Structures are given as C-alpha cells and as structure tokens.
Automatic annotation (TrEMBL):
Organism for this UniProt entry: Nemorincola caseinilytica
Keyword set includes Signal: yes
Lineage: Bacteria, Pseudomonadati, Bacteroidota, Chitinophagia, Chitinophagales
Protein name: Outer membrane protein beta-barrel domain-containing protein
Domain Outer membrane protein beta-barrel: start-end pairs: 72-226
Pfam families: OMP_b-brl_2 (PF13568)
Stretch forming the signal peptide: 1-22
Keywords from the UniProt entry: Signal
UniProt xrefs under InterPro entries: Beta-barrel_OMP_2
C-alpha cells in the first residue's frame, strides 16, 4: 500500500468517526482562546541605557581651584539579569556594563607632577599658555550594577510604575584629557591618557523611578575621582533619563 492510499484511509476513518459522533449526540468544540492557556513571558528590564547630566561635588577648599562648564554628560549601558523574589512585586538584579563621564573645564587644564620621594599629584590650573578652545576630562569604568527593584505590573514590566535602589561597583578602564586648540587656522586635538592619579575603584549609590520603559535615574559616588592625596577632592554625581526593556 503506497502513501496516497494510507492518507486516504486515514481521512476516511476521520470522516466516519465524526459522523458517528454526530449521530450519537456528541460534539467536540475546540476554542483556542478558551481551552489553550496563553503563555507569556514578562519583561525583566534586561537592558539599561542611561544618558544624563554629570557634575562634581567639590569641597570648599577646591571650589576656587576647579572650574567646570555647565555642560557635562554621562553615558551608561548595562546588561542585567533579574531574579524575582517569590511571587511579590520585588526583585533583585545584577549586571555588567560600561559607565563613561565627560567633564568640560572652564579655561583650565590638568597638570600632573611627580616629585619622587614626595609623591605625585594632579591639579587643575589656569590655561595661560595653550589657550584651548575646548578641554575635557573623561573617565570610563567597567561597572557592575546591583538593584532592588519594584514593579507595580509583574505580568508586563514594560507598563506600569517601577522603582529601584542600588549600588554600582566599578573598576577603572581608562582616563584621559582631550583639548582642542587652533594653530594657524588648523584645529589640533591633544589627548593625554593616564590612570596613575585616578581612583582604580568606583562605588556609587543609585536610584531610579519611572513608568514603563522610561525612568529618571540619579547616582552619587561614594569614592572620589582622584586617589587620596593625589588630586583635589571631587565626588561625581549624575542625573538623567534611563531606557529599560527586554
């Protein structure tokens, strides 16, 4: 018996069984919406992308020494894994990502010195020689965020109110200054990279509050920009917009 005959026999058996059931008063109604459970997988804010305004909290003694322009920014991107706490609206999340900050100086440049036995230090001083059009100080950290999260809508976290508090722990990837100057009408960029004076670790308290995929975030560092006794006491802080999803 070939395949066509087998299929024909099966089709005939199905038709006969249907007729018999109808004659005996039995009916089979299948509704995909009623009988099959809808399988959904709630979002867990796997991706966090943040962009915002950055600044330094300066000690009183450093206020006159360090002058920054109003424009400064931070950009962070994290991948997080969310662990729901039983069936509550709370969860714990941990992740890994990159955090960068750029601060623009106001007619100042970073001078570094190495006095040998006396140690080394870095200070921002007046740009009285080069005359840079633009001069910025940039840091980049490999950052691990840890958050305690609250979601009002546990079935769809892309909707509803959400909030989080947490701590970020980072290790320094790099730091540099970049200045733009003009020589006979030609723009020249000077870039100096160094990690010697910068804090190798970064600890920051964080908070987020928002609705759906958008929220407002804030962070305040528990560590300074420079190592102890290696530069002015400057504490980074930032506030901005956070996009979450997946």
């Amino acid at each position: 018996m070939n395949m066509r005959k087998i299929l024909a026999v099966i089709a005939l058996m199905v038709v006969c069984a249907t007729r018999v059931s109808a004659q005996n008063g039995y009916s089979i109604n299948v509704s995909s919406k009623d009988s099959l459970p809808q399988i959904t997988k709630s979002a867990r804010d796997f991706v966090l992308v943040q962009f915002g305004y950055a600044s330094w909290n300066k000690e009183t003694s450093d206020t006159a020494k360090v002058n920054t322009k109003p424009f400064a920014y931070t950009f962070n991107a994290f991948l997080c894994y969310d662990f729901p706490i039983k069936k509550s609206k709370l969860s714990f999340a941990a992740g890994l990502g990159i955090s960068t900050t750029s601060i623009y100086m106001d007619k100042q440049v970073l001078y570094t010195s190495d006095t040998g036995v006396g140690g080394y230090d870095a200070n921002f001083m007046k740009d009285s020689i080069t005359g840079y059009k633009r001069y910025k100080f940039n840091t980049a950290y490999l950052q691990a965020p840890f958050e305690l999260r609250y979601f009002s809508n546990i079935n769809n976290r892309n909707k509803g109110f959400k909030a989080a508090i947490g701590l970020q722990v980072g290790t320094l990837l790099g730091a540099h200054t970049k200045g733009l100057r003009s020589v006979e009408g030609t723009n020249i960029k000077d870039k100096v990279s160094t990690k010697r004076y910068i804090s190798p670790w970064n600890f920051a308290a964080t908070a987020r509050v928002g609705w759906g995929n958008f929220s407002i975030f804030g962070s305040y560092n528990l560590t300074n920009v420079f190592k102890d006794n290696a530069g002015p006491t400057l504490t980074p802080m930032s506030v901005g917009i956070c996009l979450t999803g997946l």
